[in-house]
Amino acid sequence: MNLLEANIVPESRERKLGLMPSAVQRMLDTCREVFADGGAGIVPSPEDVDHIMSIFDGIDASDVGLTPDMSYFRRGASRGTPVITYLPIRELEEFSMVIFCLPPSGVIPLHDHPGMTVFTKLLFGSMHIKSYDWVNVPQNLAELVNPLQPTSLPPGLRLAKVKTDAIFTAPCRTSVLYPEDGGNLHCFRARTCCAVLDVLGPPYSGARRRDCTYYHDRPYAWFPGG
Fold first, then answer.
1. Cβ(186)–Cβ(130) under 8 Å?
2. Which terminus of the chain has a smaller tally of CB atoms within 10 A, N or C?
3. Residue 226, burial from CB neighbour count under 10 angstroms (0-12, 13-18, 19+)
4. Under a CB-based contact definition with an 8 Å cutoff, are residues 206 and 162 in contact?
5. How many CA atoms lie within 13 Å of 108's alpha carbon, on the beta-carbon side?
6. What is the pTM of this model?
7. Dihedral of CA 54/55/60/61: which sign?
8. pLDDT tens, 147-167?
């Protein structure tokens, strides 16, 4: 597992908001209102979720100035793992709005969003998305499943269930994940060059112990007694 700390943009950068296209500006203004009194584990109301999704659905790549022929989306000459580019639009204490640029075969590994509500839209391209939610199970799960062969998972492992395992191709609707469901852990694998727009409320923050943790997934049957 690895940790990633988000970088908070100073409040003074707010002065650039007036240069944003109207759809992006409307999204930022709405998120500022919705997440103003939020925090880790606090989910916006269904009305606010629908409102954000309706604005998100109206945003396309032209609103953020991206096209598939940009250098961000080129695999490059190296045979190694393609480089993923992170483009922050706005990063505040209450929420962040960012773009991930993936060349073909680019991968964002399986990771979590602790206490967050996250809106995601694929602006262009095609990618495979696999997501999970944690499963809360009793301490004596092994004995309940197979009392003749008691076992326990090694430290650091938790049981999760698959939420999504599918290919998404733009244009497609905005998706949303929540602190406890909706696929809070997910990984992306680009089939073509892809641009992904995210709003995270609240954002990652090392100071507030909202670090991003990466995971390896293993089938339950992979373990003894599974």
1. yes
2. N
3. middle
4. no
5. 26
6. 0.82
7. negative
8. 444 456 667 788 899 999 999
